[in-house]
Amino acid sequence: MDVETQVLGRYNISNSQGYEIKVCYMQNIKEGYSSWQIQNPFYLYLPVLAMQLSLMIFLSRILMVILKPLGQPRFVSEVIAGILIGPTYFGKKQLSSFIFPFESNILLETFANLGLNYYMFLVGLEMDLSAVRNMSKKSLSIGTATILFPLFAGAGLYFLPMRTKGPASSTQPLGAVFWAITLSITSFPDLARILSQLKLLHTDLGRTALTTSIISDIVACVLLVVAIITFNDRTFLAASIPTLIFIAICWYLLRPGIAWMIRQTEKKGEKFNNTHIYYVLSGVAVFGLVTDACGSHSMIGGLMLGLIIPKGELAITIMETIEEFVKGIMLPAFIITNGLRTNLHDLPLVADMAVVSLITVAATSLKILTSVIIYLLFGMSPRDGLALGALMNTKGVLALIVLNEGRSLMAMDNTTMSVMTFTILFMTAMVAPLVLLANKTTRRARQYKQRTILRTNPNTELRILTCIHSMGNLSGIINLLEVSNSTRRSPISVFVVHLVELLGRASTMLIVNEPGNNSATNPPSRERAESDQIFSAFGSYKDKHDTVVVQPLTIVSPYTTMHEDIFQFSEDKHVSMILIPFHKQAASGGRFQVDNHPIREVNQNLLLNSPCSVGILVDRGLRLFKSSESSTPTQTELRVAMLFMGGFDDYEALTYAYRIAGTPGVTLTVVRFLPTKVVEQNANNYGEVGSFETETEEELDDDYINEFRFKSMFDKSIIYQVKHVDNGEELLENIRRNYNEFDLYIVGRGLEMKSPLAIGLSELIDNPELGPIGDALVSSAFTSHASVLVVQQPASDSFKSRSQRRVGKFRHKKWASPVLNPDYEVLENAKTMR
């Protein structure tokens, strides 16, 4: 029979004043035939650990729901939950001794340290060091300044007299090192998620912030390792040399070996399964054990393994498999540990809150002032400097790791740690409001700068953003760009965006794909393989034209917010037109039926809120035809019809059609459809003039058409015709009889079209994104062989005053005779030379 006895166990801890004290507690010991005399701690404390984690997760989820409307990241909610669980609030209740007995701290801290190891492994998986190698001089200067200045200035804040009780000597000078490292850190994972939520991930500001945060995290890890090695019992050389040797072995031997094994697996066509993940996760524990044995922190091993695993399908599979478990189950144990060491309830009793407030404000301002000054020196907007400085204040788990390591090494006491935890919480909570404030001001300055093809100078570069969702959209988009008349005076810059749905990833990603970036350290995944095929096709298009620039990139985002990422990128790159394919099912009976693919919602959102023009291409085999009559066998022929009904969308469509007409081998027929006098008279008799075009709108239409005729009067490849019809049915019948042999139809979407010709068409529309005329062309059997391009100006343009729209592309308010125009002789000579 087993006999239980009780013996004393001992812990050595330090109190809030830094003095070391001993705490005793009872342990149950079994005497019997068991090989384990002390009971398995998992039998005693595992239910307690489960209860602690459940409480932490429950509180943090509630706070996340409450703080999400305020734009607060997950880190803020978790830290607040940890503080509430600790002595600040929950520790004052009697129930705390039951949920958080002192004896359970061993298991809690062990589980927390294991979670930190795997968390830093995930951080290493997310980091892309190639961004650091390719960073510009500006980014390097900003990154260096926002790290070094807070590092030295933050150390000085540590020595401010914040305590009102206890001896002044309780401030350990070594604590300034950990304090400075904490203030210089910018958490890369948390910053990436904030940028994703604010839709700034792919902007110049976002890329600069992410690159700087990578440098900050790496520098912080190096300084932390140096601090741990220096302040440990072992000598510096005895601990640093083994650590450096291990890092060198990992980077120069293990990294190429892992990349080679991944390539071999992909060449065999094998997919990464759970077995591969098991090996990698076991490697995280082994790497942590080795670095801990070397005298540094075990999390350095996890970070190193994450950095040497190539970014690709294996990394994505690991992230999707363990990310939620590590961040949702294991990491909260560390947040609980930090909360148990933080006591904000008693802080006013031992510290001067005025000095604490000064420290918090000063620490928050360090990176903001540095960024603003650097931006002013580079001649950039101080608002962007404010936004960058606020983003650089994003703290995360790594900052708490540094604080807790400083406390474990007795470089800081509980008071210092409580002040710093509060400062970290305040700095991170202020990121979203400050960035939104700066970004809102910038948006106000940019909202009147919509870019369209109509407003783009014809002698400057035309920037087009193409959105590709699948391989089936390639040929039509590329063939349309082929005939978009890229010249040396007006080259075309194409931003090829491969749209990928976000599945299981932590945040929206924008990947700029460099040509030939398929090295051993970056093996292609399934999504990357499809992107490579898309970008290879556009690369072939670029090779045919020396006046074309192609920049490929991939946007990985949820369908519900994908249009916002496209908007932000188009604004950042000053795009004039977004070109998107029309997603459809196979034609049936001459009509296209749209499927319910989520990408359709993306296209509709683009049309509703786009800052630039949008073109929707319904591709039915658009291609260049060989001309049988031409003596030059390489000459092509494409028959294009532009159907002009009036309105601002038609102005944009006519401008793009005129550009296409400049391509050799392209013939353009512009047909203007006007209502008959009888229709207009009937409308006036019934008092319905307001529902049709006003006199001012008719004048605007005449101005644009007359300017177009003046510019194209010597161009034999352009034909202009006028047709009078009574209604929409007669319009379609006229197209069926006289204009049914074209390869491409270009029309405006016609959101503002008030012509009686639209009567009867708007009532039967199946595809609202195409407008009444575009939908009618797509749905008609006599145009089932032809492609259709529907063009829309920015939706916000419709709210502008009429006086702002009077001046057209050619800067004439009223039509004048061509021979009286000063450009007439120049144009005539130019056409003669051609």
From TrEMBL:
Q: What is this protein called?
A: Cation/H+ exchanger domain-containing protein
Q: Which UniProt keywords apply?
A: Ion transport, Membrane, Potassium, Potassium transport, Transmembrane, Transmembrane helix, Transport
Q: Where are the transmembrane segments?
A: 42-63, 111-129, 141-160, 176-196, 208-229, 235-254, 277-309, 353-378, 385-403, 415-438
**Major location category of this protein:** membrane
Record's InterPro entries? Cation/H_exchanger_TM, CHX17_2nd, CHX17_C, CPA2_transporter, Na+/solute_symporter_sf
Its family remark reads:
Belongs to the monovalent cation:proton antiporter 2 (CPA2) transporter (TC 2.A.37) family. CHX (TC 2.A.37.4) subfamily.
Which species is this record about? Xanthoceras sorbifolium
Q: Which residues form the Cation/H(+) antiporter central domain?
A: 492-622
Subcellular compartments = Membrane
Q: Does the keyword Protein biosynthesis apply?
A: no
Q: Which Pfam families match?
A: CHX17_2nd, CHX17_C, Na_H_Exchanger
Ranges for domain Cation/H(+) antiporter C-terminal: 638-794
